[in-house]
Amino acid sequence: APAAPAPPPSSAPAPATPPPAPAAPERQHVAPEDDMAEEDDPDLDESALSGHELIVRELGATVVEEFSNE
Q1: How far is CA 61 from the centre of its chain?
Q2: CA distance 49 to 56
Q3: d(CA 38, CA 17)
């Protein structure tokens, strides 16, 4: 059986460069006092951990020795 003929070369040239990406939107400046959560914010999690408790929970840390800052 004869081999299938090669497809004819395409007459449309391939694009040389991709179209430019859209520019990222500019960040708006927010004052620190406007960036704080309100006390009645329903998304505010009162049980959120910070400091030592957070490190113990997330990383399994243990206190080896404590130093006083006196």
Answers
A1: 25
A2: 10
A3: 49
Q: Measure the CA–CA gap between 5 and 9, rounded to whole angstroms.
A: 12
DSSP letter assigned to residue 25: P
Q: How many CA atoms lie within 13 A of 4 on its CB side?
A: 3
Query: From first to last of its 70 residues, what are the pLDDT tens digits of the chain?
Result: 566 666 666 665 666 777 777 777 788 888 888 887 777 877 777 677 778 888 888 888 888 888 888 7
For the CA atoms of 36, 38, 41, 46, the dihedral, rounded to the nearest 10 degrees, stands at 80
DSSP-derived 3-state class of residue 6: coil
Does pTM surpass 0.90?
no
